[in-house]
Amino acid sequence: MIKLMNLVIPFSYTETQLYEAAAKRLHIKVKDIEKIQYLKKSIDARKKPKISVVLTLLLQVKQESLLLKRFSSDRNVQEYIPYVYPIPSCTPSQHRPVVVGFGPAGIFATYFLAKAGLRPIVLERGECVEQRQKDVNLFRKTGQLNPASNVQFGEGGAGTFSDGKLTTGIKDPRIRFVLETFVACGAPEEILYAAKPHIGTDRLIQVVREMRKEIQDDGGEIHFRACLKKIEQKNGKLTGLVYKQDGRDDQIETDQCILAIGHSARDTFSMLYDNGICLEQKNFAVGMRIEHPQHVINRTMYGDEKMRPKDLPAADYKLVVHSTRGHSLYTFCMCPGGEVIAAASEQNHLVVNGMSNYARDGKNANSALLVVITSNELHDFHPLAGIVFQRKLEESAFLAGGSNYHAPVCCVGDFLNRQNPKVFGDVQPTYLPGVSLVLPDLYLPKFLTETLRFGITEMNRKIQGFAMHDAVLTGVESRSSSPVRIVRGKTCESISLKGLYPCGEGAGYAGGIISAAVDGLRCAEQATRL
Fold it and tell me: Are strands 364-373 and 352-355 parallel, antiparallel or unpaired?
């Protein structure tokens, strides 16, 4: 098979035009190409309104070896060697391995262990994804929060109720296996080649459910509503776990635990600290969500609607600006055609996040606007100081919104002009169960509001209309990343306790669905080598 990279063709093309373009690039006849598969597909809008796609293709052609020799000096034409992810066949030990947490890291760690024949046991504090979806919808309609089943806690983790984004900054061959597993469980096949793949919350729920069923078919055992309460140890080695399920304490004897608890398991972080597990601060980020009309973003990124192709997807963006005052502002988890959602997991705390479905067909685009928080802002070096900071912001936002899970919102124009907000303009906030007009200065620290004012103004230089008066700011986004790292060594094992494998985003070793899933696989690999 031949890998052909950087083939540029117009956005709207037919299969015939694709074959013709590939044949022309390789100086062969169309009939010599037997099959074409996509390996990567990205949109190039730099010369808008002329929109192109940049393709990496996998070709099956006649006389491949001769063709490869002819293009031996061309970096864009290579032999394709498929990657096969190895899962060993293991002999079960006396005690079954336990995975705590069933988000992306926990799911893929469990998937690996189940396929390896080790019959893992999962402890997930939240509900199965079907019940979790009902609990999330109830919260958004009524403001009735279930602290054990919400956007943060439950099967699939926090990423389930987002955009299902699968973009990542890491380079790892395991990524292909993760994507292929998603597709095998019902995700759209295009995630295998899209430059910015996403599944969408509506489809990701189904994928998570199918992965659970496959794990169970392979001998995995999953306990929902099972919250880890204690780690038992002897002579520096893990010996067991105590958990509470449906109001009753229970115990599992085990010498291997993959700890994939997620970034919002604050009570578990406290328990680990009290049990002598080494934790440390790590940088994290907080900020707000900004909403624009999706058509404004489309026009800026793609050009005039009358001139561009009709079937372009909802446009996204990624921005960062640096302030001379020491703080930077960057966009994160941009959700085209999405909505801002209620993401609290604790009573009397208010948290927001972004979500979109696969179609991304909502009226508004939204993105987090985040500022990095370090020990300089915390004025405290305690490992859990970041959690204290997050909680203070969430409590302030809860009070500002009216103490009923209504979110404090403000038009960008009012915020930039330091005016008390009174009415909405053309952009209606999507957050449920409701909103209250509040100037962010009333509940956010000054360094945050000033960085937001500077950053939004600067971002408007990059995307015309970004600082439009009617755009809506919703606070507070405080769970974009973990403020804690559970320290581990080169073998992914806790430096404090043999047999404990801190894993994923909550442990401080990932940042998104893909990197968390890869870290879950990495930890499972290490656990099976003992």
Answer: unpaired
CB atoms within 10 A of CB 489: 9
Place of tokens 């958004």: 140
> What is the DSSP secondary structure assignment for residue 96, as one 8-state letter?
-
* 218-242 average pLDDT score: 97
* Amino acid at residue number 195: A
Confidence of residue 530 (pLDDT cuts 50, 70, 90): low
Reported as half-sphere exposure (CB side, CA atoms, 13 A), residue 129 has a value of 24
Distance CA 9, CA 180 (A): 26
Residues in the chain: 530
Does the pLDDT of residue 85 top 70, yes or no? yes
- Which two structure tokens, joined as six digits, stand for 202? 């509506």
What's the rounded mean pLDDT across residues 157-168? 90
What separation in angstroms does the CA of 436 have from each of 148, 341, 411, 441, 476?
Answer: 26, 15, 11, 14, 13
What pLDDT, on the 0 to 100 scale, is given for residue 460?
A: 97
Region 427-432: mean pLDDT is: 98
Q: How far apart are CA 516 and CA 326, in angstroms?
A: 30
CA distance 374 to 150: 28
Query: Is pLDDT above 90 for 310?
Result: no
Q: How far apart are CA 440 and CA 455, in angstroms?
A: 15
Query: Residue 162's pLDDT is what?
Result: 84
Instruction: Report CA-CA distances (Å) from 68 to 26, 72, 76, 349, 440.
Output: 10, 6, 11, 60, 60
Q: How many CB atoms lie within 10 A of CB 528?
A: 18
pTM above 0.85, yes or no: yes
Tokens 């987090």 -> residue: 368
**475-488 mean pLDDT:** 97
CA nearest to 444, candidates 503, 387, 397: 397
CB-based contact 441:253 (threshold 8 Å): no
Give the Cα-Cα-Cα angle 391, 395, 400 (nearest 5 degrees): 150
